[in-house]
Amino acid sequence: MPNMLSEGQKAQAQKTDWFNVLPAAITSADRTSGEFNNPYALGMMVHVILSSITGTPSFVLKLQTKDAEGNAFTWWTASAPFTGSNTYYMVYPAAIANSAFAEIVTFPLPGQWQMVVDYTGTPANDYAQVQVYATYI
Asked: Which candidate among 1, 42, 69, 75 keeps its CA 20 to 30 Å from the CA of 93?
């Protein structure tokens, strides 16, 4: 029997619970996730957990995709570092302002993406445990 799901039903079937983008690790350097394939979702919510803070590290979230030659490039950079224990971001083309999110990105999520946590600080003195989760929407 042929697959009779509409594109919308296929997209809904691909929605997932929260998944780990960057596992928890003490961080005093930039970190880059693996690549993720997104065949159907228009966007995602991102949850950043910051804990065990020592000194004054600064972390900025970035999203990357690839160009036609396979080179990664940054297509979004958060406007401010994340500093709280729980910070949320939304990537969705039709998202509207919502105080629950540190920032809302009104672009569709690309078919292939990866996440970067950009670190600034003195590695010997400034570090924290960083973990990043996401869920497709």
From this structure: 69
